[in-house]
Amino acid sequence: MVASSLKLQELIQEIREAKTQAQEREVIQKECAHIRASFRDGDPLHSHRQLAKLLYAHMLGYPAHFGQMECLKLIASPRFTDKRVGYLGAMLLLDERQDAHLLITNSIKNDLSQGIEAVQGLALCTLSTMGSAEMCRDLAPEVEKLLLQPSAYVRKKAVLTAVHMIRKVPELSDIFLPPCAQLLHERHHGILLGTVTLITELCERSPAALKHFRKVVPQLVHTLRTLVMTGCSTEHSVSGVSDPFLQVQILRLLRILGRNHEESSETMNDLLAQVATNTDASRNAGSAVLFETVLTIMDIRSAAGLRVLAVNILGRFLLNSDRNIRYVALTSLLKLVQSDHSAVQRHRPTVVECLREPDASLSRRALELSLALVNSSNVRTMTQELQGFLESCPPDLRADCASGILLAAERFAPTKRWHIDTILRVLTTAGTYVRDDAVANLIQLIGGAQELHAYSVRRLYSALAEDISQQPLVQVAAWCIGEYGDLLLEGTCEETEPLQVGPALGVHRGGTCEGRQGRPQGHSLCPPPLRKVEEDVVLALLERVLQSHMSLPATRGYALTALMKLSTRLHGDNNRICQVMSIYGSCQDVELQQRAVEYNALFRKYDHLRAAVLEKMPLVERGGPQVNEAAKESKEVAQLSEAAPVPTETQVRGPGYPWGKSMVQLPYPALTLLPSLQASKLLDLLDLLDGPSENAQHPPPLDPTPGDTLIHLLDLPCTPLPSAPIPNLKVFEREGLQLTLSFVRPPGTPTLLLITVTATNTSGGDVTHFICQVAVPKSFQLQLQAPSGDTVPAQGGLPMTQLLRILNPNKAPLRLKLRLTYDHFGQSVQEIFEVNNLPVETWQ
């Protein structure tokens, strides 16, 4: 049976000649049967040949597990031909998951003790490939002895094996500390490269080793300076760069040794300057050395001039024709923009040019860096460039670009007029891609700029007349027309400041519009000419929005409410508006139907209240996201009680924005006025709708005692507020992303705890795809509400919140386990941590 077996070359030829997969499988199965029979018969002369054929079949993907024990036999054989194939089989067929790998420990130990270099090399290669933690502990003394053997071949393999051992068993670092100092004086490049790698692993895993090897910084500096200044043999030169692999590894080690250490950083400053100025960046090898030099300069305590030099190197990388190098440069500059903002600003024109890259990954990185470079001094220029990019960028980048422009405008807007124009242009260009809070922010901005009401409503009316497909723009326009329609009909628009958004917007002075791109008068991006608008035209435009198939239910709601508001702004007959309300009183959409029925009731039964109910909405200042102290809560509740007029007539659901609120009007958006405990009471305040009584009187004034003011205003049973608030707890912080927990225990349900998770981001890049998962012990019941979004905006933008409801019937100490997953600066991050220091007030 063995005699009919094929040789390895013949087996390879037959497999290659197979026409189909079935023929190949037949050849393999037939030969595997011969191999099994040979192993079973115990043929010592041909077993290594049979195993070689089996390894070839294994490389093709066929099962070869039955050859594992044969590998052990061949390794124990005294013949070198058997050992060579046996060790190769062990590296391919054995791993830590199989107990059989422990059986070769003694064989490897014996071979390492022999004086035959080839056999020692085979044993070291196998140990560094599949050695488990147990094997590394048993064989570490033998490897330590081989580190100082005369043979350079054995020393090099021993160093690589030591690297594997340190990665598997970090506590073995003490064994390899003494030999490393001697090996640094080696002139053999392979041994020196392995030694530097070994020291790097030791320093990353052991603080004692890091302190120990800071003494060898001068030796490393001398070695690297020799490579850079004098060069080496052509054998180790790559594209004219002396051994770039060794240079890169030394630079990585210097970065670790110089981090947070003034003396070591000072020692290597001059060397880093020499490497940065004497390395040719025209080839990939030189670019790799320069990039590693930049990383080292930025990570140690280097001089300010050296950091500027590093940023300039990255700026030169942006001009490289290789896209990979440009991508690396953009990513590195994005990380440096916070610490070296002024140095990175010098390369802003080059970064902006990268926005036009056809490669999606490059343009995305350039967009992130461009947004991070925006400040108060360049906001006009940068916004103009970004708006130009927004018009032509790929759809998958439009949301990020639009959000970035809006955030930059909110932070650095020089004037309110400029801010409004910028947001309007973004909504006109990419309205469907903006964040959910863009509509609310613009309405808040317009409402707070009283001198720009006439200008804003005319701009929005003109934009709406040309395009009703951009839903956020339509919603803002409908709100403004409803609130300030009288200004639109008057045809007055005072210019308070020049319009400077970009060349595409033109200049508006004295009712003329001169667009640099030839836009006609009346274009949505140009201020409309000052002429009076007819009432019927405005009503027809809002009816068109109501009837459009592109309008969302929320958009129709804005238009319906705007029509209702115009009933008090217009001077003509309101029959047309009444007809629209009657039509939508039978609408299939429940919200629209409810609003229309309420508005009809306002026309028919309470017409004497209509003017008061539909008056212009007062401005409410936006509350900060972190207002959680009880004193601030009581103060805001008292102010709200004094400012909100108590209705004296029968009340219906009124046209305040957003939907479903009462006639106690608040400007849309519904901004955060009170923290979680007061939110439900605020909704009660907004729903004072019950009980028809035309002669109702104002309630008598009450003493605004803490916790009672809002309750007395609502004429509801008094429920005292908690005497002392539970302090907030910051549980996570990394690269600008912070996670804070705020707690509320409803007085009526002492076993219930409400936790608001607030994520804020002070870094220069948005945190996207943010997911927060929470686990509690089995004795608790947890319910996670939907988060407010999955993006945490950069530069301290609107925070993301999520509510947790935890039921603790046993009042046991509370522990939380959180898992955060998100994308930040182009990297996917996952963090798992436990919170066991919650305040005792959360569970006692």
From TrEMBL:
Q: Where is the GAE domain?
A: 724-839
* PROSITE patterns listed in its UniProt record: GAE (PS50180)
Q: Which GO terms describe its cellular component?
A: AP-1 adaptor complex
- Its chief place of residence is membrane
Organism domain of life: Eukaryota
Q: Where is the signal peptide?
A: none
Record's InterPro entries?
Answer: Adaptor_Complx_Large_Subunit, AP1_complex_gsu, ARM-like, ARM-type_fold, Clathrin/coatomer_adapt-like_N, Clathrin_a/b/g-adaptin_app_Ig, Clathrin_app_Ig-like_sf, GAE_dom
Q: Which residues form a coiled coil?
A: 1-28
The processes (GO biological process) annotated in the record are: intracellular protein transport; vesicle-mediated transport
**Membrane topology, from the record:** Peripheral membrane protein
Tell me where it resides: Cytoplasmic vesicle membrane; Endomembrane system; Golgi apparatus
Q: Please give the SMART domains that the UniProt record associates with this protein.
A: Alpha_adaptinC2
Q: Which UniProt keywords apply?
A: Coiled coil, Cytoplasmic vesicle, Golgi apparatus, Membrane, Protein transport, Transport
Pfam families, alphabetized: Adaptin_N, Alpha_adaptinC2
Similarity annotation: Belongs to the adaptor complexes large subunit family.
Please identify the protein, giving its name as recorded.
AP-1 complex subunit gamma
Q: Which organism is it from?
A: Odocoileus virginianus
Gene name of this polypeptide: AP1G2
